[in-house]
Amino acid sequence: MFQCHARIPRDRGVVVKAQGVGERRIAACAPKSFKIITGSICAPLGFKAAAVFCGIKRRKLDLALIASDVRAAVAGLFTTNQVCAAPVRLSAQRVLKRFAQAIVANSGNANACTGPQGIRDAKRMAEAAASALNLKASHVLVCSTGRIGVPMPMENVQRGIRACAPLLARSATNARQAAEAVMTTDTRRKEIAVEFEIGKAMVRIGGICKGAGMIQPWMATMLAFITTDIAIEPNLLKRALRIAVAQSFNRITVDGNMSTNDSVIMLANGLARNSKFEIRDSQFQDALNFVCLELAKMIVRDGEGVSRFVTVNIHGARSAGEAEAAARTIANSALVKTSWCGGDPNWGRILCALGYSKAKVNESCVDVGYAKPGSREILFAFRRGRPTDVDLKTLGKISAAREFDLHVNLHLGPANFTIYASDLTEDYVAFNRRYESDPASTRRLRWKN
Predict the structure, then answer these.
(1) Residues 369 and 409 in one domain
(2) Mapping DSSP to helix (H, G, I), strand (E, B) and coil, where does residue 85 land?
(3) Which positions are catalytic?
(4) Is 373 helix (H, G, I), strand (E, B) or coil?
(5) Which of 41, 329, 330, 448 has the highest CB neighbour count under 10 A?
(6) Helix (H, G, I), strand (E, B) or coil at 400
(7) pLDDT (tens digit, 9 = 90+) per residue, 396-423?
(8) CA 444, CA 428: separation in Å to the nearest integer?
(9) Is there a single domain that holds both residue 114 and residue 231?
(10) What is the DSSP letter of 446?
């Protein structure tokens, strides 16, 4: 990440050019090293998807199947919440193995806090999908999202799985429908795919995800499914996914709440026929990082009631842990988030949050600046312990935009951290105050301009 080395008087709020681009390097260089394509999870060879309405929700698609033509190396990461859903418990055990071949996912019911029956129902979902697809039940992973504490309507689910299996196809339409079927409070589907070469082989990575509320690392209320036709050893796939998730899904927050159902699952079926020996020197890790980060950003932008997307950059902390602590404290401060909602560049609230974070802070060393998204032009409101004479109208134009970057430099060490955050709006409160007691009344409220 970049360090700001401006040599200017402390009491002036001026524009400063940064010396680097930091963690946005991957997204910025992505089009040069690989190509964004259509098809998301169906873009890689040998992957098919389908979705149906089975009656878990009232009208919309609510069940999806994703399957590979051949067995695939598997990797997965799941919520660290001690109260985790039955599908998480089941799938977390199964991804410890080397291979899997299919995923069955539903929305509208989280199958969380449902006791022993929830575990039995998750297993029955896997068994039903395995029977419909002629696979081993142990090669089927299960994910659920929706309301907590409600028994799964298994008759509807099993009927839906049987109806969904014959519809499996490798098409962009089927991929879109699968993305829609796992949506809950999302207002839009979230999908992406890229392709690149490893030696003479063309390799593709595709992904879909859902998530809008209960968004806080580690991984937020989100389901993400990533497919690739790369030929890779399972242990290397697991390592690659850990690296990608660490800088994407684990760096987002909307409301600071950790879910019971977070799941990121990746399947790699090897049909690209690439040389495994060439992976290390290829674009694979960069491409996977890009896919995960773009999906993660889509979640924040579609957060419940969200009107601002803010990239919070901490520079100059003593250690990586302190940089992360400072970033998360700012990004989850209710006072900071509500000031973002109002388009108010209230640096005082940012300094307050810094002060009670677990990071070491010396007020006389701190810089606080604002910039347009991805810009290296930073306008500082506070430098080395004192307010600047920055033009407030100019500063306000940046912070009132739908997206902007916040830069905080502690000037105490070499460590940096970036987190992607949102504001906190009246719409978020209005939506969540009656979600459980009257879900029919909780229509989604979209971004405000």
Answers:
(1) yes
(2) coil
(3) 221
(4) coil
(5) 41
(6) coil
(7) 999 999 999 999 999 999 999 999 999 9
(8) 9
(9) yes
(10) P
